[in-house]
Write a structure and sequence with these properties.
Length: 344
C-alpha cells in the first residue's frame, strides 16, 4: 500500500509498505476513506515533536471502513463506517476513567507520531472500541472527518471554560480549531462570542457560518475597547487561545477579566512567558495541554442532530498519490486554505 512516512526533519516520502496486521485482540484494521492534514503533522516534520518516531507513517485525522477486528473488540465489526480519535487510549486506567484520555497510561498521541498513522491506504488502530466511533447512516464520511481531532479540540476548549449562559467568550484565532471552538461555545450556551483574527478572510468564514456575534481584526480595530464595551469594563469571561502565534498567549491573559478562565488549546513552537508579577491579583485560571478527545460519540450525535457542522472546513482536496503536494500547500495556508481532504 502507499504510505507517507516521516524520514527526518524536513523530509517526508510516499513509499510502498506492507498492509498492516492485527497486533492485539483489541486492534482494528481500517481502510482509510478520507484523511486530513493537521498542523501537528507539520510540527513533526519541522522537528518540534521529539517523541515522533522517524519512519512512522504520518497522520491521525481520518474516517474509514473497518476491514477486520481482533477478538477483544466488542462494539465494532467489519463493514462499519467509523471516525477515528486522534488519541489512543485504553479506557481503563486512572486517567481514562477520569476523562483525561490524552494522558492514558497505555496510549496518548500515538497514531502518526509513535505508531503508523492514517496517511496511507490502511491503518491499524489499537484499542479500537475506544478510538473509533461508529457513524449513523445519515452522517457521511465528510461530515465526521474532523470529529476526533479539531472538533474535539474546539469542544474541549469550550468545556474547559465552564461556560455560563451570560458569558462573553473570546476565541483567538479563526483557523480550523478556532472555528470549531466558536461553534462549540455556541452550543454550550455562551451569551456572546467574539472571534479574533488578523486574517479578514478567516473572519469572513466565521461570519458566513454564523459562528460568532462579533468579528474583530486587532490590527485594524481597538480590540480592548470593544471587549470592555461588551463586558461593562470587566473583560472577557473566558478566552480560548486557538492561534498559537508569538503574541497570542499574552493577548489571551490581557483581555480576560479577573477570575476568568483562559483555555489554551493552541500548540506552540516555543516557550511562552507567564508574567506573574504583572497579573498578580487578577486571579486567572489557566487550563492548558493536549486535547482530551473523550466526547466523540456526543459530537457525532450533535452532527446527526444538525447542531454542529464542519463540512465547510474542507477547502481543498488531494489524492493520496499527491499528498506531498498537499503538505506543501497546507504549509503555505494560501488561497483560503482551512483543511485539506485527502482521498485514496
Amino acid at each position: 500500500m502507499k504510505a507517507l512516512v516521516y524520514k527526518d526533519v524536513g523530509e517526508i516520502e510516499l513509499i510502498e509498505k506492507p498492509l498492516p496486521v492485527l497486533h492485539s485482540e483489541n486492534d482494528a484494521i481500517v481502510k482509510v476513506e478520507i484523511s486530513s492534514i493537521c498542523t501537528s503533522d507539520l510540527h513533526i516534520v519541522r522537528g518540534f515533536v521529539p517523541r515522533a518516531q522517524k519512519g512512522v507513517v504520518l497522520g491521525h485525522e481520518f474516517v474509514g471502513t473497518i476491514m477486520s477486528v481482533g477478538s477483544g473488540v466488542k462494539n465494532l465489526k467489519p463493514g462499519d463506517r467509523v471516525s477515528a480519535n486522534c488519541e489512543t487510549f485504553c479506557g481503563e486506567c486512572w486517567f481514562c476513567r477520569h476523562g483525561f484520555v490524552n494522558n492514558c497510561e497505555k496510549g496518548g498521541w500515538e497514531l502518526g507520531c509513535r505508531i503508523d498513522g492514517c496517511h496511507a491506504e490502511y491503518v491499524r488502530v489499537p484499542y479500537a472500541d475506544m478510538g473509533l466511533t461508529k457513524l449513523p447512516e445519515d452522517v457521511s464520511f465528510e461530515n465526521a472527518l474532523f470529529v476526533g481531532d479539531i472538533l474535539s479540540s474546539g469542544w474541549w476548549g469550550a468545556e474547559l471554560c465552564e461556560i455560563k449562559p451570560e458569558d462573553v467568550v473570546v476565541i483567538i484565532g479563526a483557523g480550523p480549531v478556532g472555528l470549531c471552538s466558536m461553534m462549540s461555545a455556541k452550543v454550550q450556551g455562551a451569551s456572546k462570542i467574539v472571534a479574533l483574527d488578523v486574517d479578514d478572510t478567516r473572519l469572513e468564514v466565521a461570519r458566513k457560518q454564523n459562528l460568532a456575534d462579533y468579528f474583530v481584526n486587532p490590527k485594524k480595530e481597538d480590540l480592548y475597547q470593544i471587549i470592555m464595551n461588551l463586558t461593562q469594563g470587566r473583560g472577557a469571561d473566558s478566552v480560548i487561545e486557538a492561534a498559537g502565534a508569538d503574541d497570542t498567549f499574552e493577548l489571551a491573559y490581557k483581555i480576560a477579566r479577573p477570575n476568568a478562565i483562559v483555555a489554551v488549546v493552541a500548540m506552540y513552537e516555543k516557550n511562552q512567558i507567564l508574567p506573574l508579577p504583572e497579573m498578580y491579583g487578577k486571579n486567572l485560571i489557566f487550563k492548558t495541554g493536549g486535547v482530551d478527545a473523550s466526547k466523540c460519540s456526543e459530537l457525532v450525535n450533535l452532527i446527526f442532530e444538525n447542531k454542529l457542522n464542519t463540512d465547510f472546513l474542507i477547502t481543498h482536496r488531494y489524492k493520496l498519490e499527491d499528498i506531498i503536494k498537499a503538505y506543501e500547500f497546507f504549509e503555505t495556508k494560501s488561497n483560503g486554505c482551512l483543511k485539506i481532504a485527502v482521498t485514496n
